[in-house]
Amino acid sequence: MSKEFDVVVIGAGPAGYVAAIRAAQLGMDVACIDKWLDLNDKPSLGGTCLNAGCIPSKALLESSELYDRANNEFGDHGIKASKVELDLAQMQKRKAGVVSQLTGGISSLFKANGVKSFAGSGQVVDSGEVLFVGHDGKEDTFTAKNIIIAAGSEPVELDIAPFDGERIVDSWGALEFDEVPKKLGVIGAGYIGVELGSVWSRLGSDVTLLEAVDEFMPIADRDVAKEGLKSFKKQGLDIQLGARVTEAKATKKGVEVKYTQGDESHNVTFDRLIVAVGRRPHTKDLCAKGARVELDDKGFVDVNDNFRTSLPGVYAVGDVIGNPMLAHKGMEEGVAVAEILAGQKPHLNYDVIPSVVYTHPEMAWVGKSEAQVKSAGTEYRVGQVPFAANGRAKALGQQGGFIKMIADAETDEILGVHMIGPYVSELVQEMVVAMEYKASSEDIARIIHGHPTLGETVHETALAVDGRPIHFPPKRKK
């Protein structure tokens, strides 16, 4: 029996559940289909982000950092903590509790907003028609005025290192270890690889990251990436650049990995191996044969500026339409497409989407890197101030890192801000707002920041763009 709705959303990750809620707020009758099953094979809303990515990884990052600080930093604060023991089962239990609360929260929000939730898979058959298959195998047809595809993405699996769920795992499997591997390998040193490597390194693993490219974290500004690499190596992460894995074979005792680095060949054995080489759009079997939803050569759904696909009445948002594959980007696209369906005219500024790496120290940035500004031929000025000049950072015992601000030499408009240091995931938000309103470095320099706060380093960096920092010696021109 067919069910009729104004909107059917396929996927309940950040882009999908937000699109569903916003559409319901705007008076539409909305259904949201999601096929995620948790480790107990129970339906769970929130997609990869809440179930197996953003949220559980941050929970483990926080717990592992506290464990590491208790062992290595508390003494500096006059806190004598002897015989600190790791209870990994409790740590995992806490993480699962955080996930459960948030995924359950989406269910409550659906009910509060009148969104009808269906556990199973959805396939676009044609304009206005979705085939729903429940987890029990029963089929139904949903008809709708509009369909929103928000199917998300999945980890890339390498032919040379196929997942077995035990020895060779993806990013979700890496969050579910029930014991700390003595020797852990990670293929990929991007933000996922570094975050996961940091968790298990803090808990006692000997971690090696094998990165195929010759530069560390090329998506980041070079100064931030260089500082990050130095810091992570100091923490004990063995980051091998230009290391191309050619074979990974799981055995009863571990994983045998072969890789090349320049002209040299290497063989190494790990207890477990994490493959973190990126994600790909989840578009396989998303559309029935004959459904005219066009994909690009990488499998992403092609959309126009209003998120419309090639099939009338069908829209797509989030990871499934391409980079940046970030939850917050997908959320805002979900809001935007719902408002478009309601006849509104929303606007998204893709030039000021923040990026964050939740390591210690954290890394964050928004806007263009110095290399991008230079390649565009724009004349610019740079201000850079270390957290070592900040009183709050010293009090926290986290004075490593810096903030770098790039401004147009003629107009003084802020073009990019790049940070590495304590809580920069929060500090970068000030710059997102500033850049959205086309602020200049002078605007930030004239705003009074509280003292003592980490935010003062943002203020000091803006002053440094003009060569007049107060608490840090300016660079002298030769």
UniProtKB/TrEMBL annotation:
InterPro entries: Class-I_Pyr_Nuc-Dis_Oxidored, FAD/NAD-bd_sf, FAD/NAD-binding_dom, FAD/NAD-linked_Rdtase_dimer_sf, Lipoamide_DH, Pyr_nuc-diS_OxRdtase, Pyr_nucl-diS_OxRdtase_dimer, Pyr_OxRdtase_I_AS. Disulfide bonds join 49-54. Residues 353-461 form the Pyridine nucleotide-disulphide oxidoreductase dimerisation domain. FAD binds at residues 58, 122, 319, 325-328. The keyword Transmembrane does not apply. Binds 1 FAD per subunit. It holds the Pfam family Pyr_redox_dim. It comes from the Bacteria. Its EC number is 1.8.1.4. Its cofactor is FAD. The keyword Chloroplast does not apply. Residues 5-334 form the FAD/NAD(P)-binding domain. It catalyses: N(6)-[(R)-dihydrolipoyl]-L-lysyl-[protein] + NAD(+) = N(6)-[(R)-lipoyl]-L-lysyl-[protein] + NADH + H(+). GO terms for molecular function: dihydrolipoyl dehydrogenase (NADH) activity; flavin adenine dinucleotide binding. GO terms for biological process: 2-oxoglutarate metabolic process. It is found in: Cytoplasm. Belongs to the class-I pyridine nucleotide-disulfide oxidoreductase family. PANTHER family: DIHYDROLIPOYL DEHYDROGENASE, DISULFIDE OXIDOREDUCTASE. The active site is a redox-active disulfide bond. This is Dihydrolipoyl dehydrogenase. The gene is lpdG.
